[in-house]
Amino acid sequence: MISGSVFVGASEEQSGDKFRGVNPATGETLSPDFCAATGDQVARACKLADEAFPVFSALAPPDRAAFLERAADEIMALGDELIERSTAESGLPRARLEGERGRTVGQLRMFAAHLKKGEWLHVAINPAMPDRDPLPRADLRRRHVAVGPVAVFGASNFPLAFSVAGGDTASGLAAGCPVVVKGHPAHPGTGELVARALRTAVAACGLPDGVFSYLPGPSNELGAALVSDPHIRAVGFTGSRPGGLALMRVASARPVPIPVFAEMSSINPVLLLPGALAARADALGEAFVGSLTLGSGQFCTNPGLVLALRGEALDRFLASAAKALEGAPPTPMLTAGIHDSYGGGVATLDAHKDVTAVGRSAETGGVNCAQPALYSCTAKAFLSDPALGAEVFGPASLVVACDSLDEMAAMIEGLEGQLTATVHLEDDDKSALAELLPKLERKAGRILANGWPTGVEVCDAMVHGGPYPATSDGQSTSVGTLAIERFLRPVCFQDIPDDLLPPPLRNANPWNVPRHVDGDPKRT
Amino acid sequence: MISGSVFVGASEEQSGDKFRGVNPATGETLSPDFCAATGDQVARACKLADEAFPVFSALAPPDRAAFLERAADEIMALGDELIERSTAESGLPRARLEGERGRTVGQLRMFAAHLKKGEWLHVAINPAMPDRDPLPRADLRRRHVAVGPVAVFGASNFPLAFSVAGGDTASGLAAGCPVVVKGHPAHPGTGELVARALRTAVAACGLPDGVFSYLPGPSNELGAALVSDPHIRAVGFTGSRPGGLALMRVASARPVPIPVFAEMSSINPVLLLPGALAARADALGEAFVGSLTLGSGQFCTNPGLVLALRGEALDRFLASAAKALEGAPPTPMLTAGIHDSYGGGVATLDAHKDVTAVGRSAETGGVNCAQPALYSCTAKAFLSDPALGAEVFGPASLVVACDSLDEMAAMIEGLEGQLTATVHLEDDDKSALAELLPKLERKAGRILANGWPTGVEVCDAMVHGGPYPATSDGQSTSVGTLAIERFLRPVCFQDIPDDLLPPPLRNANPWNVPRHVDGDPKRT
Predict the structure, then answer these.
(1) Phi/psi class of residue B195: alpha, beta or left (left: φ > 0; alpha: ψ in -120 to 50)?
(2) Does the pLDDT value for residue B131 go beyond 80?
(3) How far apart are CA B163 and CA B155, in angstroms?
(4) What is the tens place of the pLDDT at every residue in B42-84?
(5) How far apart (Å, rounded) are the C-alpha atoms in residues B219 and B223?
(6) Taking CA atoms, which of A86, A174, B79, B388 is between 20 and 30 Å from A516?
(7) Peptide bond into A510 cis (omega under 30)
(8) How are strands ordered across the β-sheet holding B150-153?
(9) Which segments carry the region annotation Disordered (chains A, B) (predicted)?
(10) Closest Cα of chain B to A66: distance in Å?
(11) Which of A235, A168, A211, A180 shows the shortest CA–CA distance to A55?
(12) Residues of chain A neighbouring B490 (CB-CB closer than 8 A)
């Protein structure tokens, strides 16, 4: 079933340079050959997307929802082939990928439900006031509509949930934007299978071909060509900071600049407040290592920085974490490149004069395996060397010992923008947290207590975003229903005849969506 | 009462280079001298804004609303001095400025009312599900919060409604962002009076000094320093395209890039559909000239382009417009620079080989007066020379004669992004408009029928924004309640103890704001 094809709309094509997937756990290349998409295919896919836009963006919510639900069904119908291939291409365990598949189809279904509720249209109506003095008011009606075709970059670390049919694709399609995916070269077979499922759903729902195209390939030029294409109106990306920044540069240099919603990097500070540390240092150390090593440390929300007050309780935490780390088995990383990069990051910490090695896994592991590692330093050392705040993608973390809560606050103020900030507290830490919370809020998109950042619930309230450089646009989220807002824009209609208005703005409200009339909610 | 001061928070300061306002209608400079803000003042104002942020952004909605209402009252309390000074500095008629003052205080009061409704907080709650299988769900609560201090650039063409206390300032303050205004040098006395009113309101409401600062000055360096300041988190701007693009470059080159919401340029196409033109060419010509010459053509929504099918009806429209133009008196423009620029734009059209002069005002007018002028060309000429699509800021417009509705559609597809698109139609034009409407919607933020674009109602449904380059961010509006969204970001709280949550997220909902719980609207 895996052919190595490029999908330009409904056209399954074989041309261009060839590349192969690799099993990172063994280092072996996997058949078959995959075709890298060409510049011509980029241009045709984007043109098809543009042609599909008027029909797709104007669909009634239940019709677009049905497409999303069909896409979810088709992904499930891929069956075990998808799990086996994604396991082979990612080195991640089967149970994780089964869970990730559930999350992926769950996202599609969540957006289908969200579409049907209709609030995403943001309908606001100010009826005409012909007798207003001194000037009459026109009839003004506004609703949000899709921005246009969207380019989505599949991420390496979630080959299903943040890739071909991941959150960016799901929210873009939900908004009514045709999507052109640049497939990640680390999981080309997985990508093709999912792309095939989406293609099947497009055809089954009778939608225009250009609603979805899939352009796999290993080159940066492919991605740059996609972001440069004049038909593309927005970009969704999850990946490295250099990658995100490069796409931002391409997007802002276009004759018509477009927004890039890039989720790029985060070290996700964890604050162990004094009461919590005193009460449960041992348990915290063990649980922390569980979060740190999850998925070989390759979560965007991996806890890469721990802040605590120096002292006996912190020593206990470190001892507990070191012990847990010693028994944590090294696990394969997603690619040889990521593994090399992790090795470089750890070597930098090992060599840093102000950094102490706290512990590491007793084993070094096999091919492309990351050896979990923990380090510590003082707040003064951290504050005097910005390089210590750089993300080390993988299961390594740095514990920073602070002299006081004031120094901890200064540490927070010195941090870059983050996806998450975590606090462990007991009741006697509440006043300290009350002081720190406003500072944390300016740094992170999600603040959590007495848990670990490495679970990102897909729901309405979730924010998976944060101030730059955690994301390019700190006013957005890439997970949860709010993610659809990235791909919508408002349009106002003034005195347009009722029968020419988009359905949600017509007097009869044929889509039966919630509306605001002169600022107050009404369904009719 | 006008002292020429800079306001760094509550500190009224006199230093720096001096400059003066000019009465454009006479060319005379106006006393007193005004101090241009210095780099040191920029830095101090932004630091104060940052310090004010935690308190100001956390105010309960009624408290921030009371401040906006007080600001409106203080502007009204300036009395006739404000109207006299703004008339002298802008060359605009008294009635216009009285109306603009009403709009300015109306905007502040509209945001006060909008704040109290609470929907702008976008509260979403997904309660904990401790027994969910296979994994429990944490308690997740999200609300929007201010992004941080905002820099606002006063516009020349609306010395009140788009300036010191204009829509950007009102929406920024409403969101909870301290605002640092860069005052426009074309109306320094007007700016100072309004700044003084805002300062009075800040003090009267017991708010931190840094909630509002006012930095007037003529130099581009001042604006660049403001946008570069690390405390500034977003920018609001209304002005020229070169000005907006320059600020976008500064903002994106920062170590931490920030969004610029710039409203930059638009030629606001007007489509005269065949039925409408046949039925009322004469009346349309006359009414068109009324819109074209309003405020000396210095509205962002000025109709600078007219599209119609060639033929007898269009000839009648042109004759009617030419006649109305002949009697339209030249009126002073806002500054000598704007007048010079208008002269250059008109000269380019006069000299263009494919452009025909249709008519102009019989008089040339006095100092800095713009002589209204109308031109025509064919669609082929327009499509072959992109320069004909450039905005000529002032009372000049270009009528493009199309051979067919298909050619008109091609004209629309070739246009840059616009603030508005206007259509004149009769019943027999409806099928033509149904074809054109999706194309218009991709080009403009507001589409209006059988009216003129030069009235921008301040209300919920208004969109005063549009695809680039009409604005830098085509997903936003600078007029209407939706403008507040530019200055908000979502933050999610996970398992945070109830007493530490922001009030709108607490179980008891002490602010009594509308909330969504598991996707459904609830007030409790």
Answers:
(1) alpha
(2) yes
(3) 5
(4) 999 999 999 999 999 999 999 999 999 999 999 999 999 999 9
(5) 7
(6) A174
(7) no
(8) B11-13, B6-8, B212-216, B179-183, B150-153, B234-238, B260-263
(9) 503-524
(10) 19
(11) A211
(12) 445, 463, 465, 475, 477, 482
Give the B window 136-195 contacts with A, CB below 8 Å: 137-138, 140-142, 145, 147-148
CA nearest to A237, candidates A153, A150, A151: A153
State how beta strands B396-402 and B369-370 pair. unpaired
Let me know the angle formed at the C-alpha of B431 by B429 and B434, rounded to the nearest 5 degrees: 110
Please count the other Cβ atoms lying within 10 Å of the Cβ belonging to residue B439: 18
Which tokens belong to A117?
């509720």
Cβ–Cβ under 8 Å, residues A369 and A332 = yes
CA distance B427 to A497: 9
For residue B90 the two structure tokens come to: 């802008």
Q: What is the CATH number of domain A6-17+35-264+475-487?
A: 3.40.605.10
Return the residue matching tokens 């590491």: A360
Query: Predicted ipTM?
Result: 0.98
Report residue B93 as tokens. 């008629």
Q: What is the DSSP code (8-state) at residue A36? A: P
Pick the CATH number of B6-16+39-264+475-487 from 1.20.140.10, 3.20.20.80, 3.40.605.10, 3.30.43.10: 3.40.605.10
User: Is the backbone of residue A420 left (phi > 0), alpha (psi -120 to 50) or beta?
Assistant: beta
Q: What is the CA radius of gyration of chain A?
A: 25
B129 has a chain A CB within 8 A of its CB = no
Q: Residue B300 catalytic?
A: yes
Distance CA B42, CA B351 (A): 45
CA gap B313, B304 in Å, rounded:
20
Contacts of A54 in chain B (CB under 8 A): 438
CATH topology for A269-449 is Aldehyde Dehydrogenase; Chain A, domain 2 (3.40.309)
Report H helices in A78-187: 80-90, 94-117, 167-175
Say which residue, A63 or A1, is predicted with more confidence: A63
Distance (Å, rounded) from C-alpha B495 to C-alpha A445?
A: 14
Catalytic: B74?
A: no
Both tokens of A271, joined, read 């604050």
Q: Which residues contact B386 (CB under 8 A, 6 or more apart)?
A: none
| Catalytic option among B177, B300, B369, B377 | B300
Q: How far apart are the first and last CA of chain B?
A: 49
Spatial CA neighbour of A12 closest among A200, A231, A228:
A200
d(CA B169, CA B153): 9
Distance from CA of B119 to the nearest CA of A (A): 10
Pick B500's closest partner by Cβ from A114, A433, A468. A433
DSSP states of A257-277 as a string? ---EEEE-----EEEE-HHHH
Q: How confident is the model at residue B1 (pLDDT cuts 50, 70, 90)?
A: confident
**For range A46-51, the mean pLDDT:** 98
| Residues A314, A305: Cα–Cα separation, whole Å | 14
Domain boundaries, chain A: 6-17+35-264+475-487, 269-449
CA dihedral B229, B232, B236, B237 (to 10 degrees): 0
